[in-house]
Design brief:
The relative contact order is 0.12. It is built from 14 helices and two strands. The chain has a two-stranded antiparallel sheet. It is mostly helical.
């Protein structure tokens, strides 16, 4: 027996390693089963219940709620509108966040720390408080319209419509996008940019051919995170939309709290989870294509 073989640590038996893996994964699996899987299964079961005109549920399994959602054009329009609005907000958030994330990635020292604190600080404030702040800014007598009036420009309607919801959600989601972009900027090597610049490549070509392809994983991660948060957002669309912007999250609230149609609310909730799953599949495929 050689000295290297004698000094090598003995590997545990295969059965012992399997038991160790199960023991390590059991707590998180149990937490997910109790905190996520059980409520989702309960929602799925509730979506097949029958609802009476009084709002009471009967534990009689029926496909009426699912059939109503499939055949009613309102819900088809609601789904398309929610997905399209969320995609638009995600794209706008990316456009606003990318330059900030890139500048923050290239900063050094104390200045980088200060910028990172400024980026994270909005997350320390509740989304409700930030939304009320946007109400004060975007209202008819708010900061924006007062500034437009001082410049002699006509006031703009930015509350209780899609414009206010888009502005509010974009600002609220920007910290998440910036942090996700920073997490994906690890492949960005400044030496490659310097080499391209030395060879005569203009700045736009360097960005298009080097910076953008290398940062695509961060872009994909940020878009996935912001899309999921935008689809499931409720507070901001409800307050800034004023009940005139119909999205999946606000409709789920109305069906569960206002009309007491819990089976329909459960069906829409399951549909949101399906959209999340589709977004995750697209993200996985995009990441494989990028890498």
């Amino acid at each position: 027996m050689s000295a290297a073989t004698a000094l090598a640590p003995a590997l545990p038996p295969r059965r012992s390693r399997l038991g160790l893996i199960v023991a390590l994964l059991a707590p998180i699996a149990l937490i997910n089963a109790i905190g996520f899987l059980a409520p989702v299964l309960n929602l799925a079961r509730m979506s097949f219940y029958e609802v009476e005109p009084t709002g009471a549920m009967r534990e009689v399994y029926t496909l009426a709620t699912w059939a109503k959602m499939v055949t009613d054009s309102f819900y088809a329009e609601l789904i398309v509108n929610s997905v399209s609005v969320s995609l638009g907000i995600t794209l706008l958030t990316l456009v606003c966040s990318y330059p900030i994330a890139l500048y923050l990635h290239r900063s050094t020292g104390t200045w980088k720390t200060i910028l990172l604190v400024l980026v994270i600080s909005p997350l320390l404030t509740s989304a409700v408080v930030r939304t009320y702040g946007w109400i004060a800014i975007l209202s008819d007598s708010g900061l924006v319209n007062n500034s437009l009036g001082a410049l002699g420009l006509p006031p703009q309607r930015m509350m209780f419509n899609l414009t206010g919801v888009t502005i509010g959600l974009t600002e609220i989601l920007m910290p998440y996008m910036i942090l996700a972009l920073l997490a994906g900027f690890g492949r960005l090597d400044p030496r490659i940019e310097e080499a391209a610049s030395t060879l005569g490549a203009p700045p736009f070509t360097i960005f298009r051919r080097i910076i953008l392809p290398l940062t695509l994983p961060g872009i994909a991660l940020g878009c996935l995170l912001c899309f999921v948060l935008a689809v499931s957002s409720f507070i901001t669309p409800k307050l800034l939309g004023g009940g005139r912007v119909f999205l999946l999250a606000t409709e789920i609230y109305d069906q569960a709290i206002v009309t007491l149609n819990w089976p329909l609310a459960a069906t829409l909730s399951i549909l949101v989870l399906v959209i999340f799953g589709g977004a995750l599949v697209l993200y996985t495929r995009a990441l494989r294509a990028i890498l």
